[in-house]
């Protein structure tokens, strides 16, 4: 065994160690020949050329430069921190001076603030951040208010559900529904007809058609709850039209159970022409009284662009009588077009049918459109309105003052 070990050591010395020393391999890989490898490396170090020593000097320089970079990085970090602190102090000074400065600023925003090229640019950037923060606060406040309203509505709904569950109210609502349906059924036999003209689909957009149908649904519910309802006719209503689709969306299953007359025929084919009156705001003839023997037609149209003369032209083509509501006679009109919504028209016609009082009926006109009811002759009121408008807009003020002084010499004197 000893002879075999000695032979193995000789082989390692003669073959492996010189190869490892030439290629710079570590001597720790051979524990059996540790002493020999050390001595061999020392011999090789002594026999190295001076160029290898220069390489070692370069390595020292590289190590020293790395240490210097680390030190410079350590020095630059506190410099950045000091500049950020200075920027924060300037912003605090601006806040104390009364400028619009945001309450919370991140480090990235501070860095961008410091990178701004001029003072005006810094002010604009800080103003932008302040406005952004205000918008966020307003959005959060609105969200909180909506949440509170939702909770309040939920509480109220729970309370109303509790009251609705009471048997007395359920019985009362069912009785009233039966009474309303009975009135609507009677109106289909004995009631005065009221026609909604559904021939304006091509004159409107899809959104305007949906608004029209909503207003007609409100008109139908208002008519059903009245004391003496109309017999409503939907004329020129074709299947699979925009009107028809919107009605099926709004009513759902109740569309087939409505106590109204739906037809694709024109009203001139159902009723005699001498009894038909087309209600339009463009008519030159003013409606004086409500006639219970006539059949009034309302154009089912909502036009945001206010297309004048469309319904009047249709009535003239069919050879029908037209009429407009006497808004100028009873109301001191201020602003806006004299076109009313369909549910407002229904309220006015029902009130006229029940009471024949124009003042009560015209109370359903939106109050933003008129100043009040007419108590004096219309011409005098128009003169005073013209005077007020000219004084307000400062157009021909001296001429207006002279006219006012002539008409009212005792109350007004020109200085």
From TrEMBL:
The gene is Trmt10c. Its main location: mitochondrion. PANTHER family: TRNA (GUANINE-9-) METHYLTRANSFERASE, TRNA METHYLTRANSFERASE 10 HOMOLOG C. Residues 180-372 form the SAM-dependent MTase TRM10-type domain. It catalyses: adenosine(9) in tRNA + S-adenosyl-L-methionine = N(1)-methyladenosine(9) in tRNA + S-adenosyl-L-homocysteine + H(+); an adenosine in mRNA + S-adenosyl-L-methionine = an N(1)-methyladenosine in mRNA + S-adenosyl-L-homocysteine + H(+); guanosine(9) in tRNA + S-adenosyl-L-methionine = N(1)-methylguanosine(9) in tRNA + S-adenosyl-L-homocysteine + H(+). Keywords: Coiled coil, Methyltransferase, Mitochondrion, S-adenosyl-L-methionine, Transferase, Transit peptide, tRNA processing. Residues 137-162 are annotated as: Disordered. This is tRNA methyltransferase 10 homolog C. InterPro entries: MT_TRM10-typ, MT_TRM10-typ_sf, Trm10_C_MTase_dom, tRNA_m1G_MeTrfase_euk. One of its GO terms (molecular function) is tRNA (adenine(9)-N1)-methyltransferase activity. It is found in: Mitochondrion. One of its GO terms (biological process) is mitochondrial tRNA 5'-end processing. It is an enzyme of class 2 (transferase). One of its GO terms (cellular component) is nucleoplasm. Its EC number is 2.1.1.218, 2.1.1.221. Residues 141-162 have a biased composition (Basic and acidic residues). It comes from the Eukaryota. The keyword tRNA processing applies.
